[in-house]
């Protein structure tokens, strides 16, 4: 029989010790920023991203700095020690404080940790790790959960900072980072288009900091290089002063993402003008062309029109309407849009501009990425915070938007 005296008593919060968390730099300022000012000792950070995006590269590169003041154990289930050595050499990561082992068994991993007593543990990847006590295969939800739980206990119990790599597919929905988000301290997503070299690191969850910071990198032959002026990179390859392109900001899940919309409008030789759209809903594009003809007064109906989202993105949000309209008008009128301008807003059938959800978040992303002007729906625009250096241009309809964007 349990006596009332055995029950653990709650403690007044004022009597608890509040040792501030200990942080250390990773040597990558962009990563430190996303982490909220460096990695927190004894925390577990999940680094998610599509295969091939550069997660292993990022983790191996930070070893250089980490090894200056700590012992790092890099456990890879994806590559052999030899392959790791080659990669480390290529990235100029050479330290006798970096220990690598190719391992997929959780029990053996825990044993290595007991033997090596590292300060930092990197696990690459959670999908290759398995606990032999479970029947399910490596990468299944139960394995991924169980192994993460064990790593979490390691982080908290032995004050080891653990970075865990997890692969996600394009929808971000596989057994991996998504099912683990609630368990870990920090979830970072490493994103980018396979065909371009820039990569963006975002925090989807952070127990020790804000989640609205992003880190931008460029993948080069020598590894990931931090990008100090992200907008420059995002705009790289973007033709300067060429008509028919406009940038917008869409939400990918909870995260704002900038996308470039390109349009080409040319007079048609056919009775049935050609329309194609790539990455943009075809019917929506047809509707926008009709609105442009009837409400914007541009005679686009007899023209061939092509719409393309650069970088293979697929936009299914009305918030991208305005940028599509501006790009189409820009091509039709043969007048370029300023390279530092972004347009956000839903377009209605009367040509009116309607507001979109998460506008403040989108605008702050536009600001963070260094753009100078942002066209937004006028409705409740006054309630938005005014970011320094970003001019907000509230408009009521597509006519105002086109005049503002093309400086007519
Ligand atoms: P990697 O870190 O292996 O991706 P992940 O661990 O997320 O699956 O990166 C893979 C890609 O990065 C690969 O296609 C080659 C490229 N890469 C470079 O361009 N430069 C480099 O220095 C390295 C190491 C990789
Ligand atoms: Mg990898």
Question: What do you see in this structure?
Answer:
The protein has 408 residues and is of the alpha/beta class. The protein is built from eleven helices and 20 strands. The strands form five sheets. It has a nine-stranded mixed beta sheet, sandwiched between helices. Helix 8 packs across helix 9 (321-333). The N and C termini lie far apart (84 Å). Magnesium ion (MG) binds next to helix 2.
Helix/strand layout:
Elements: E1 23-24, H1 29-35, E2 39-40, E3 44-49, H2 55-69, E4 72-76, H3 81-90, E5 98-102, H4 106-116, E6 120-124, H5 141-158, E7 161-167, H6 177-180, E8 186-192, E9 198-206, E10 214-220, E11 223-226, H7 230-234, E12 245-252, E13 255-267, E14 275-278, H8 282-294, E15 303-309, H9 321-333, E16 341-343, E17 346-347, E18 353-354, H10 359-368, E19 373-377, E20 391-395, H11 398-406
Parallel strand pairs: 3-7, 3-8, 4-5, 4-6, 6-7, 14-15, 16-19, 19-20
Antiparallel strand pairs: 1-2, 8-9, 9-10, 10-11, 12-13, 13-15, 17-18
Thymidine-5'-diphosphate is lined by residues 49, 51-57, 87, 90-91, 219, 221-223.
Strand order of the largest sheet: 5-4-6-7-3-8-9-10-11
Briefly note the structural class of the backbone: alpha/beta
Mean pLDDT: 90
Oligomer: single chain
> Which stretches are poorly predicted, pLDDT < 50 over at least 5 residues?
none
* Helix content bin: 25-40%
Count, helices: 11
Separation, N- and C-terminal Cα atoms: 84 Å
Number of strands: 20
Summarize the model shown.
This protein is an alpha/beta fold.
